[in-house]
Amino acid sequence: MAAPNISTSAVRVRVLDFTRTPGARYRTDGPFSGEQFRDEILVEAYDRARAAGVALIVVLDGVAGYATSFLEEAFGGLARDRDQADVIARLQLVSTEEPELVGEVMEYMKEARLAKRTQRLGR
Amino acid sequence: MWKRFRRQEPSPARSVLPSSLVPITAPARLSLRDDPDPATAFFAVLEDYRRRGQGVALDMRPVEQLTPETCAMLAAVMEMFRRKKLIVRGTSPRAEAARALLVRSGFFEHVTPMVPPAPVRGDLGQIRRRRNDEGLADPTLVDTFVNFASSRSISRPEHKPSYRCLLECMANTRNHATEQFGGRQPWWVAVHFDPETNISAFSFLDFGVGILKSANIRMARKLWLKLGIATPADLLREVLTGEIPSRTELPYRGRGLPGMVKTCRSGQVRRLVVVANDAHADVEPGVYRKLKKPLHGTLVYWELHPREN
User: Fold this and answer.
1) Which of A17, A118, B59, B249 has the highest Cβ tally under 10 A?
2) Whether the Cβ atoms of residue B66 and residue B101 lie closer than 8 Å to each other
3) For residues A109 and A76, is the Cβ–Cβ distance under 8 A?
4) Class of B128-309 per CATH?
């Protein structure tokens, strides 16, 4: 699959517009969860970016911090919900405060396929 | 004069205690972090009396070393006694640093002092603590605690690892501390800032089933345990490094504790210590040991050190 053309206007999302204090994985865990962020913000933004054929830029900076479970459920969850290869190609993460987050989130998205297959096999 | 002074300090002997209270003397070294066996033995005795509905009289005078995580645990245990409407009376340590820590931990909010604790000179640290009955992962509270620590000497970005660790602890309690998924298990969190060392110490604890009972330990490993081929310390190490998967069996779950270990190994947080069931992990030096007495629940402790320039 060809990488989205990022020179055209991309869809841009800031986690800070969702909350300054991201929570844990599921809504049942508490407020501002990764699940909530994915369902209310990320999926819609991804679908819009895909329909327009542009990149989805997610800015991770400006918040108090991230739990592993938030990042995995939001981004790994997006890759499980949608076309994983396209998600990986289309998503551009920006983190100047914690640059290592970019690699971490990419890892979650890449491993999402394995998780999906394991779930399908009923394990 | 000396005799009169001595008489003013009641001993926790039976004669000055209501007969219903059982006298218990704390060990000189009370530290789940540094010397867990005496501490877990002490907590096991307390837990035994709490379960039996028996009030206690705690003689804390011999305590010479008391560390923040044990203090947090002690205050939480005393709160459990009080919630069960059990009477606890206590003395305070003779050692000044231990006394300051104990007084500021909230211990005496649940324990009636036999004598008012002697005053403490100088600034011996600040403690912020909170209990959450719902057992939810509360990011606003995490932010408050991290801010408390970051309002001291270290710039804010270095506190992001603590934000991560504290949220993971809360999420773990939420999802794994009860026998069934989604059960409600209260947790306690405390942050202690030491102005002498500029170290912020985070303690998180719950009285749930413990990490080893909530982990997905397969039959083979259980057999190894019985045969003595593996120890609880081995299992705790495997849980912390992610070799034992989450009990959800979803491959993308169970990354929280291994993530905390990585954070410690990269030096972002220091002195990560996990005590659960009958195992103790001191992650930074990689020392894992089996405890003589199990701890009721789970305790996670870590420190933030000032930046080395």
Assistant:
1) B59
2) yes
3) yes
4) alpha beta
Instruction: Judge: B167–A108 Cβ closer than 8 Å, yes or no.
Output: no
What is this structure's pTM?
A: 0.86
- Reported as half-sphere exposure (CB side, CA atoms, 13 A), residue B164 has a value of 28
Residue B104 CA to residue B100 CA, distance in Å, equals: 6
- Cα angle A85, A89, A95; round to 5: 125
- Sign of torsion over alpha carbons B25, B27, B28, B33: negative
Sequence length of chain B is: 309
Residue B265 near residue B240 (C-beta atoms within 8 A): no
**Whether A118 contacts B251, CB under 8 Å:** yes
Q: Which residues pair with B201 in a beta bridge?
A: B192, B303
The per-residue b/e assignment along A73-92, b for 16 or more CB within 10 angstroms, e otherwise, is bbbbbbbbbbebeebbebbb
CATH code of B20-116, in short, is 3.30.750
A121 part of contact set with chain B, CB < 8 Å: no
Residue B133 sits at the chain A interface (C-beta within 8 Å):
no
Residues of chain B contacting A68 with CB distance shorter than 8 Å: 164, 168, 255-256, 259
How far does the CA of residue A5 sit from the closest CA of chain B (Å)? 30
ipTM: 0.85
Domain with A102, as residue range(s), is: 5-120
Does A37 contact chain B (CB < 8 Å)?
Answer: no
Q: Are B40 and B33 in contact (CB under 8 A)?
A: no
Q: How many domains does chain A have?
A: 1
